[in-house]
Design goal:
With 388 residues, the chain is mostly beta strands. It folds into two domains: 5-100, no CATH class; 113-387, Neuraminidase, CATH 2.120.10.80. Helices cover 6% and strands 40% of the residues. The chain has helices at 5-16, 23-28, 31-37; strands at residues 44-45, 62-65, 79-84, 87-94, 98-100, 113-117, 127-132, 140-144, 153-156, 160-164, 170-177, 185-194, 198-201, 205-209, 216-221, 229-233, 242-245, 249-253, 263-268, 276-280, 289-292, 296-300, 309-314, 322-326, 335-338, 342-346, 349-350, 354-355, 358-363, 371-375, 384-387. A five-stranded mixed β-sheet has the order 1-2-3-4-5, covered by helices on one side. Strands 8-7-6-31 form a four-stranded antiparallel β-sheet, with no helix packed on it.
Length: 388
């Protein structure tokens, strides 16, 4: 079958929020037509991890991955990716005759790697670590923040990870690249110095909500390096809460106000406004981590007494959370990451005082318990997470 390349590009741009591809790049993507007509002859790789770096040398190339946990499409056990804007983006099929470049992992989910940044080990650390979403393997140290700190918030664009705020009290917004391993740079400031805050990510902006003694929701752009602006407030000041993101809204769940909060707050990504209380967790708690599937938000672990509960609440409607599984152990002061198929926790403390290096994961496709899959380079707590 033939395919309109410009329509495909427009759909891709709308999905991943990048600038329109120019005519020269459109010509370079003309191989898509041949691929659609002859997809079973496409170059095959054993796994996503074995793909070459997506760059100008292979821009527009589509490859077949024989085994990929992201899903199976068209050919049994296969997934297809296109090299697009220095990233491998998934191509999804509906039967043998329809093709779309769609369901790209949004900023709040990743297909490639999870990251942790900052934390206490036991002193403040500036380390940025990376671990694979496609294989259970230990993390590696890939760079440094501009400032060692604990209790920061994490945000993720399609190209970069962000670490904002933290203790000792700072307003710094650090940015580090996903396309290569490297140190972070200071690219802006929050509206004030704050720690114990939590992060959310839309396709175009990063958000930092709450913090110790703070109700503010800050927003900063991904398209340029700039300071944050205050767009509204949570329903109550809370710290060490969990952050979740859907396509349209940011969520802040749990936290200490002080006292153990069970509130699930929601605020819009499409308009600047304060949050509203849309539901309750099953247990009020703080020092929690947040994860996001395409349909639900998850709040895992927390204090008091090292809660091991994994709560899930829907994005489609305002409702209370339900208990859908357990972490590998009681856990608090940990970070959260989200792939398209699993929620992850990294680091943290197993009460009363055992600092952990463990990376746990639990499935999005079904309600279930977490398993221990890998380790960070060292045990640490009060760190934050990002994903690519």
């Amino acid at each position: 079958m033939a395919i309109n390349i410009q329509n495909l590009l427009s759909a891709a741009n709308a999905k991943i929020g990048v600038a329109a591809v120019d005519a020269a790049d459109s010509a370079r993507l003309a191989s898509l037509t041949n691929f659609v007509n002859n997809h079973r002859n496409t170059q095959t790789f054993a796994s996503f991890a074995s793909l070459p770096t997506a760059d100008s040398s292979n821009f527009g190339q589509i490859v077949r991955v024989a085994a990929d946990s992201a899903g199976t499409y068209l050919d049994s056990g296969s997934t297809f990716y296109v090299s697009y804007v220095n990233q491998w983006k998934q191509v999804l099929f509906s039967g043998d005759s329809d093709v779309t470049v769609g369901q790209f992992a949004p900023a709040f989910q990743g297909r490639n790697f999870g990251y942790t940044s900052g934390g206490s080990s036991p002193n403040e650390t500036n380390v940025i670590e990376k671990f694979s979403f496609t294989a259970d393997a230990n993390a590696t140290d890939v760079g440094d923040l501009t400032l060692a700190r604990t209790l920061p918030s994490g945000q993720s664009s399609s190209e970069s990870g962000y670490t904002s705020g933290g203790s000792p009290n700072t307003n710094i917004i650090d940015k580090f690249p996903f396309s290569s391993d490297g140190n972070a740079t200071d690219v802006g400031d929050l509206t004030g110095s704050k720690s114990g805050l939590t992060g959310q990510s839309s396709r175009t902006n990063g958000y930092a909500s709450g913090g110790i003694g703070i109700t503010a929701i800050d927003k900063f752009p991904f398209s340029s390096d700039a300071n944050a602006s205050n767009i509204g407030n949570l329903t109550a000041g809370r710290f060490t809460a969990a952050g979740q993101s859907s396509t349209d809204n940011g969520y802040t769940s749990g936290g200490s106000a002080p006292g153990n909060s069970n509130i699930i707050d929601k605020f819009s990504f499409t308009s600047d406004a304060g949050a509203s209380d849309v539901g309750d967790l099953t247990v009020g708690r703080y020092r929690v981590a947040g994860q996001s599937s395409s349909e639900s938000g998850y709040t895992s672990g927390g204090t008091p007494s090292g809660v091991n509960i994994i709560d899930k609440f829907p994005f489609a409607s305002d409702a209370n959370a339900t208990d859908v599984g357990d972490l590998f152990t009681g856990l608090e002061r940990h970070a959260g990451q989200s792939s398209t198929t699993y929620g992850y926790t990294s680091g943290g403390v197993e009460p009363p005082s055992t600092r952990l290096s463990s990376i746990y994961k639990f499935p999005f496709v079904s309600d279930g318990n977490a398993v221990d899959g890998a380790d960070l380079t060292e045990a640490k707590s009060y760190l934050t997470g990002q994903q690519y």
